[in-house]
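User: Assemble these into one structure.

Assistant: Restating your components, then the assembled model:
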Amino acid sequence: ATDLMTVLFFGKFLRYDADRPDRPENDRLIFSKGHAAPLLYALFAAAGKISETELMTLRKNDSRLEGHPSMAFPHTEAATGSLGQGLSIGVGMALNAKFIDRLPYHTFVLLGDSEMAEGSVWEAIQIAAHYKLDNLVGILDVNRLGQRGQTMYGHDIKAYVKRIAAFGWHTIAIDGHSYPKIVDAYKKALRVKDKPVMIIGKTMKGAGIPYFSNKDNWHGKPLSLKELETVLKEFGPVDKSVRANIALPKSVKRRPAPARPPVDAYTYDKPTATRKAYGMSLTRIFPKYPDLVVLDAETSNSTYAEIFANKYPDRFFEMYIAEQNMAGVALGLARRGKIPFVSTFAAFLARAYDQIRMSQYSRANVKFVGSHAGVSIGEDGPSQMGLEEIAMFRAIHGSVVLYPSDAWSADKLVEEAARHRGIVYLRMTRKETPLIYSQKDDFPIGGSKVLRESTEDVATVVAAGVTVHEAIAAYEELKKEAIRIRVIDLYSVKPVDAATLKRAAAETKYIITVEDHYPEGGLGEAVRSAFDSTAASILSLAVRKLPKSAKPDELLDYEDINRRAIIQSVRRLVNSARSSKVSASLL
Amino acid sequence: ATDLMTVLFFGKFLRYDADRPDRPENDRLIFSKGHAAPLLYALFAAAGKISETELMTLRKNDSRLEGHPSMAFPHTEAATGSLGQGLSIGVGMALNAKFIDRLPYHTFVLLGDSEMAEGSVWEAIQIAAHYKLDNLVGILDVNRLGQRGQTMYGHDIKAYVKRIAAFGWHTIAIDGHSYPKIVDAYKKALRVKDKPVMIIGKTMKGAGIPYFSNKDNWHGKPLSLKELETVLKEFGPVDKSVRANIALPKSVKRRPAPARPPVDAYTYDKPTATRKAYGMSLTRIFPKYPDLVVLDAETSNSTYAEIFANKYPDRFFEMYIAEQNMAGVALGLARRGKIPFVSTFAAFLARAYDQIRMSQYSRANVKFVGSHAGVSIGEDGPSQMGLEEIAMFRAIHGSVVLYPSDAWSADKLVEEAARHRGIVYLRMTRKETPLIYSQKDDFPIGGSKVLRESTEDVATVVAAGVTVHEAIAAYEELKKEAIRIRVIDLYSVKPVDAATLKRAAAETKYIITVEDHYPEGGLGEAVRSAFDSTAASILSLAVRKLPKSAKPDELLDYEDINRRAIIQSVRRLVNSARSSKVSASLL
């Protein structure tokens, strides 16, 4: 890839102000084949932006030059290293240039041939053609060799040309080591209209060094000192003083963003699905958060992203049923200063988990919104039920996980998500839920709401989303029997309100968690982890039987996460406490 | 899709013994567009295998006829409903027929046009062509309309033909409502050699009923009673008594499986990476588990699946860097009685999480093996570190999560995984770890090993994998200060050995968990959840800072999950206990 990138950097094709990486006019370059990180660093060394001494800190503790491009290096556009993700990020940046910021920058993505096997690349390819992203240039380095041998197509350049062209791209196949051909390819690529361009370079891994050129078993392998001698001899003399400049971009006057008048006030006065409040809230907050962009995977009539799409079509992008690419595009938009909200069924966000995982290493400011969470969706059955995504999103470093229980809390939490910088997951419910809160209530991240409380509480029920309503119903029922319980709405599953939980544990003896999610990694375990090295008695109700198709209420009952199950658990704990008190007094 | 499927079922193309769904010679049919489940049920009703009464239980509690095809229905090959997964499952079944069982059955997959946007479909398409699966027939129902409007290509049949043909398939484009054309297409499809075939049918959603034919906004929407009247009128009279037969398959004499002589005994006598023991163990157990099949995503030289691949090339399938398809293929193989082991870097299994999620609903017998777990991989940096996958796999219903700490435990746990029926995740470490166990030790699923124990233990350290070695080192150090700790190797993270943990909590006051994984959903929370409604004081050490490139030991130290951190935690707990005892005695 060295030749392909050297011409890009120093042939005045890339226009990038290396002293101001955030300059909006800069071209963008993503190393989708992140394992080529040493080349990225070497290019910036050749541009005089890294010293030779720093170059030698590669992969060492506290070096900016990590094993794969990371945000520690100021010229990294997005952390890569999980293959097949860079093109989606590039699509996000190109969409931003063409449709949002209306800037003339180009986005270049260096791809490896091995990663072309990833379906996510083809998702990006199809959507780039769909949106006619003529400001996006892929550079495919076909060096034939993957980590453990030959790729599926080896050096069959035509196989790539045929497939990529079939998806509507302009393709330019070249000898990836011929400087005149590479120069010519970039010239052509920057002139193509209405289509993204893929430059397909036939290359030799380790080109120029017969000792390992085009040979297997050299992927990520260091040379012995003896081998190094041979290789340096084959390579010939090196002039380490060579430096060259990266061309600067032209300054562009930004058009002011169109004014967005505030939307008409709305109010909730009857049971409303939180997913619907999501769509409403997006339209409400957009004038306050003009960087908002909304993406959806062909489910906007279910997630209610369509409410936003209908009002602000210029800021809604249909991503079709391709969740991996959607997450990558969102990251690309976020890296260009946007606040992307990404919605689909909660269950289908699992499709993008590797992209979500990687985005935590890119300081991503992306909001994921999963509708149709839990068994409470009912008849559609388990394939459509999000039952693992709290675990999935909690395990992301520094993430926020929010789970509203009514329209007002959903409305406010969408705004909290927009205001917060970082990865946020919002869990939405399909069915309508009664109103608990009013417009006046606030829902800070990391907080909770104590909905029922007395000095006689025997247990605390910690719930979120649909189970809040079950907990309130259980409270009413138990009150008739003179059993008082505390009810906490843990709308912020991460970070968790440890202080309120600890107070509840100290005051009410038992904690019962109840959630419409599998037990592992969910609300129950979030509550347990709030008690670091202090003891608490916690009983967790969660989805423990394989779900099926049935009515929402039948399923909440079947899984023992409804009012009936809460009431039984409270009674059981109270009775066992009484009987152990009795046996203690008998001793 | 009704016309396309009716001809398949009753035109003597599908050969399927509906009274014996498990018959090896049966053709296989997967509804990748799982939302067409009512059609699947209706076809079996027409074949006389479901009564009209049962058909009316669709989506009701305890019906076999769920909202999307589930295993409750005996003719479901694999649970579907998350789009874009069926073709991979079909590839697994076709691979089985062609290369393993050598049976003449065909695998048919009904695909929707919306799901063609999923990259996983293209992963399946490329691999099917690579393995020349001429026993695989896709039927693509291009009805133009997705859930919320037109698909990316609408009724542009040529767009599909061009793309699918470019990937090396034989394509047959037809009017999907013309019976003679459909008959002709199946005839042709079954004669094609060396290529998979895609029949691309141009269809109208709601064909034959002008009220909603080819009209938007009818996806998954029930009719009002008044609309139903109109529609039934348009449809005309229905003869509910019509029944037809599905053709039976021909009986085939199975070839006996080739004899696999036991491999030479091997032994471990020096530090060995658990990932290497994985490859060794696979070769050892294959003669005992002749249904074993191994898949890897172009990482077999890192996961050491290559040890198996080199010895038994006929049972190893290179899946290239396409993890989603790999998981789907594994499910297809498992549904045909095989025991697939699927390996790649632990981090990259996140790529297949939706496929893994769905496979829990197909009673999958698949073993996922993630190498390079945790920060202990070192210099390659966070993109390559599996730090979320314990959470990911624990949240799968009925799953088993195993995490060996040395070569012998790895060796045995691979066999436990093979013996167990269900989804198992095995977490492997990149670096070499010293031997703790011997060949004589057993590691039953759900067990643990108490490695250090005395009556004076002040705390219990619960570790797994690399942290077991840190815990042992901490034990040795603290022993010099006359502080005794208990050390438990929790090699079975799920199910968890609650009895041993409860005994430890009762006997040692404090529990310290230490894991090379993010805190959420990992070992620490697994331990916490073992204490349902009983109190225990648990302190959790886990990866809490954003990781980076550095040496493995530097990273274990940086994240406070090494011997130093364990020792400090024990001292702190002991001292705080002492000082609270002192203050109590002063009162």
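The CA atoms of residues 11 and 476 of chain A lie 74 Å apart.
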